[in-house]
Amino acid sequence: MSFTFPKSGPKQPGYTPAQVEEFLTRAREQFNNPVENGVTAHDVRNTEFDLVHGGFIPEIVDGAMDKLEDSFAAREILRQKNEKGSFALDDRLARVLELVRGRLARPRGKRFSNTGLLLRGYSRKQVDALCEHITRHFDSQAPITINEVRRVVFNAKRGGYVEAQVDAFIDRVIEALQIEQNR
Fold first, then answer.
1. Helix crossing, 163-182 with 58-84: angle to 10°?
2. pTM listed for this prediction
3. Of 179, 97, 178, 96, the residue nearest 135 (C-alpha)
């Protein structure tokens, strides 16, 4: 099965077409015929493709992957609600929010581990600004979209926050927003 995404110029980086097509074929098969331990929303969110010259334009593939992730998440949430009831879904949301709020409750500049002065990490100021926006949403339902969180880009700074910790936090926030959206 071939997917038609526009390709970048011959000297521009893009995603390796064979990798994108192989993953999307597996995802489509899973979506059409769900099986245990198949592709999940988490798998879609954490899939990465190698870059090659003349590959698929990353922004377009990323947009398609976001829609695919949202579709898988909605289906998984509905399945959990149907199999275990809305109480189980509320419990899952409460557990995810407990983790998220634990990070949000920490003081500015200390929400995540720092990389130290020799290494670069995400700008603490920018990450903290996102955390405050997320806090406003969960405290008062101030509007925030999944794509605002998903597409945030932080500058690299010496002594910044450890990227892996921030990325894992963002994954939990996205999970919470998807549950909120699909309850």
1. 60
2. 0.85
3. 97
- What's the CA angle centered on 138, arms 134 and 140, to 5 degrees? 110
DSSP per residue over 55-97, as a string? Answer: -B-HHHHHHHHHHHHHHHHHHHHHHHHHHH-HHHHHHHHHHHH
CB 60 within 8 A of CB 12: no
Domain ranges for the chain, please list them.
13-81, 107-182
Q: Which two tokens stand for residue 149?
A: 């969180």
Per-10-residue mean pLDDT, the chain, length 183: 80 96 91 80 93 96 94 93 92 96 96 93 97 95 92 95 96 95 88
